[in-house]
Amino acid sequence: MDISFFEILILIISLFLFLALIILLKQKNEIEVSYKKERLEHLTQEEHNYSDLEKKYRELAERIGEVERKKESIYSELRTVDVSAEHIFLLNKNLKYIKNKFNDLHIQKRDLSSLLGETRQEIESELGSYKRLVDEFDRNSQENSKILTEIIDYIGTIVKQTQTATSLIIDDEFTLELNLKKYSINSLIDTLLNKYNVFVELKNIKFNKNLFDLLPETKIDPHKMGEAFDIILNNIIKFAEIGTTIKISTGIKEGHIYLEVSDKSNVFSEQDIKRAFNKFEQNDIFSDGIKGFNLYLVKKIVEEHHGRITLTNDLKSGSTFNIQLPII
Question: Is the pTM of this model over 0.85?
Answer without folding.
Answer: no
